[in-house]
Design goal:
It contains four helices and eleven strands; from the N terminus they run βββαββαββαββββα. By secondary structure, the chain is mainly beta. Strands 1, 4, 5, 8, 9 and 10 form a six-stranded mixed beta sheet that branches. A five-stranded mixed beta sheet has the order 3-2-11-6-7. A hairpin with a 2-residue loop joins strand 8 and strand 9. The longest helix has 6 residues.
């Protein structure tokens, strides 16, 4: 097995689509992205994201349901570049990712604000399809894919950890694949 595939995972050549609920359909013209909470409130458009430095990324993608897709090709904006446009209170320690369709997931500032994390709008050279989170999703390669929220439309900065949808329903608070942080053990 590849040293890039975490314990308990298998490699897939496809890119399975797993979604809880219906797939939101949001046009680029109507899409907006907000920051709030312990951050200066601000709203971004898709054009705002496209005006930021664009990068190509190749990252492995690990799903909690045990599949891993290696060498996924994305284009988007580094989290570190985006954060240059956001004023965050130093008390912020966690973020709640909010998405069209009502999905939420939590992430610590330490796991979020990393050089290898990015907001993706392109997958394998094509606009990110809705079923994979388009028009924009977060990609956090070092955590299981549910932390890479699809249909992202906002970040709420918090001074303590709050649990998102899957975390409230038995998934691990962090979701690190190499430690097999799949489930919380609470249920």
């Amino acid at each position: 097995m590849s040293d890039r595939i975490p314990p308990g995972q298998y490699e897939t050549k496809g890119f399975p689509v797993l979604t809880y609920g219906e797939t939101p359909k949001v046009s680029i013209e109507n899409w907006e992205f907000r920051v709030w909470g312990l951050a200066q409130p601000k709203t971004f458009t898709f054009a705002d994201f496209m005006a930021m430095p664009q990068h190509e990324f190749t990252a492995d993608f690990h799903c909690v349901t045990r599949w891993s897709r290696l060498d996924v090709k994305w284009t988007g904006v580094k989290v570190t570049d985006f954060m240059q446009h956001v004023e965050v209170d130093p008390k912020a320690s966690h973020i709640m990712e909010h998405c069209y369709g009502g999905y939420t997931t939590n992430i610590s500032m330490a796991d979020f604000w990393r050089e290898e994390n990015f907001f993706a709008h392109t997958l394998f050279g094509e606009p990110l399809p809705a079923e994979h989170g388009g028009p924009l999703r977060l990609v956090v390669p070092h955590l299981y894919a549910w932390k890479s929220a699809k249909w992202l439309n906002g970040l709420e900065f918090l001074d303590q950890e709050e649990l998102g949808f899957w975390e409230r329903n038995g998934y691990h608070r962090r979701g690190e694949p190499w430690a097999e942080e799949r489930y919380s053990g609470l249920f």
